[in-house]
Design brief:
Blueprint: E1 4-13, E2 16-26, E3 31-35, H1 42-49, E4 54-61, E5 64-65, H2 71-76, E6 79-82, H3 94-100, H4 109-119, H5 121-125, H6 136-148, E7 154-158, H7 166-181, E8 186-191, H8 194-200, E9 203-208, E10 211-217, H9 218-222, H10 225-232
Helix pairs in contact: 3-6
């Protein structure tokens, strides 16, 4: 069994179906990317893993079924989530925003905070700064750091580069690789930027209108016109 396995997942907002019959797998230690245009269902897929939307199908993590569990229990099982819109407290300091993420892993607070600051030294330098006054890249670092404060083994990251300058995107990519290589995390990202995803991930899944269209290794998909057809519609 894969580390994370999604089987025949469909997700709904009220009566509207947002995802249809999605299946995917993630092996321990991988970085995989789910790419697609705005509205393809990428955020909904991550929200489904976290138990935030109504769904059918089954989601297994580390040998246990997590579909149907509460979000707090899913976090406690070892899954961290950095959502697209950051969801930070704008008038709280960097450090206080990070400590909010420690609620389910209080015993690890000091070690996790040290880990976050080693990944993002800029946050250590500005730990008393309100996040409302930070740049988009710095807020993304706080969002990633707060997810790490939960002591995850699997990290879900929604649109890590949206609205960021290319230089900042590269900083985020380096940090995500370190999370895998130095700290042993498995990482799943969603991205509109297919080029960024293909420089970071080993495998790619392509979503279009709530359905999985293409999947494969980056090496294979670089040679496969289906990626261009599914992602760009040409």
């Amino acid at each position: 069994m894969s580390y994370l396995e999604i089987k025949s997942l469909s997700a709904y907002y009220g009566k509207a179906q947002a995802l249809s019959d999605i299946s995917l797998s993630v092996e321990k230690g991988e970085i995989i990317a789910i790419v697609g245009a705005n509205g393809a269902g990428k955020s909904t897929l991550l929200d489904s893993i976290m138990g935030l939307v109504r769904q059918t199908g089954q989601i297994d993590f580390d040998g246990s079924v997590i579909s149907g569990k509460s979000t707090s229990n899913i976090v406690k099982s070892g899954i961290g989530y950095a959502p697209e819109r950051f969801n930070l407290f704008p008038y709280m300091s960097v450090k206080d925003n990070l400590l909010v993420g420690a609620f389910t892993a209080k015993a690890d607070t000091a070690a996790n905070l040290s880990q976050v600051y080693s990944l993002f030294p800029r946050l250590a330098e500005r730990e008393t700064q309100e996040t409302a006054t930070q740049s988009g890249g710095e807020r993304q670092m706080v969002s990633l750091g707060r997810a790490l404060m939960t002591s995850p083994n699997l990290l879900l990251v929604d649109e890590p580069t949206i609205g960021l300058a290319p230089k900042v995107c590269q900083e985020i990519a380096v940090s995500l690789r370190r999370m895998r290589d130095d700290f042993g995390l498995t990482v799943v990202i969603t991205e509109q930027n297919a080029n960024f995803a293909m420089t970071l991930a080993e495998r790619i899944y392509v979503l279009e209108a709530g359905k999985m269209q293409v999947e494969g290794t980056v090496e294979d998909l670089r040679k496969d016109n289906r990626l261009i057809e599914a992602y760009f519609g040409t």
